[in-house]
Design brief:
Strand 3, helix 3 and strand 4 form a beta-alpha-beta unit. Helix content is 38%, strand content 14%.
Length: 144
């Protein structure tokens, strides 16, 4: 069975959706067969600014939908929570090789003009990409 990553956030609307797309893209670029999923403790729909921020990188979230934990495989290899609320209410994953917590600000809570709010999504997107690159190097080292 291939290794898998589950990204968890409260609503599965922004951070976890962006993380899922970035990880799938990274897996494809590195020729990895790692399966990638995201879910929330509740599903609220994918935020339009998350779709827009990811489209700037050529990643299409327009067909994504929010999911709860009941809709993803129950035994991920790695679990990454992206907000404190999900970390606190996250069920235990006894078979997970590693559980990490990346407490990232909620870009959906950003105030201001649409451009200012989109900028908050870009900041979080870029931080997820940076952390994911580090995580990937530790978890899936390049093979000679």
């Amino acid at each position: 069975m291939p290794e898998s990553i589950l990204f968890l956030c409260t609503h599965n609307s922004a951070r976890s959706q962006m993380a899922e797309a970035l990880a799938r893209d990274l897996a494809a670029r590195r020729g990895s067969n790692v399966q990638v999923f995201s879910a929330g403790t509740e599903a609220r729909g994918v935020h339009p600014l998350a779709v827009r921020a990811m489209s700037e990188l050529g990643l299409d979230l327009s067909s994504h939908r929010s999911k709860t934990l009941t809709e993803v495989p129950p035994h991920p290899t790695y679990v990454i929570t992206l907000c404190s609320s999900a970390a606190e209410s996250c069920p235990v994953f006894p078979g997970a090789r590693r559980v990490e917590h990346w407490d990232l600000p909620d870009p959906s809570a950003a105030q201001g003009t649409e451009d200012e709010r989109l900028a908050a999504f870009r900041v979080v997107r870029n931080e997820i990409a940076r952390r994911l690159d580090d995580f990937w190097g530790r978890s899936f080292p390049a093979r000679p």
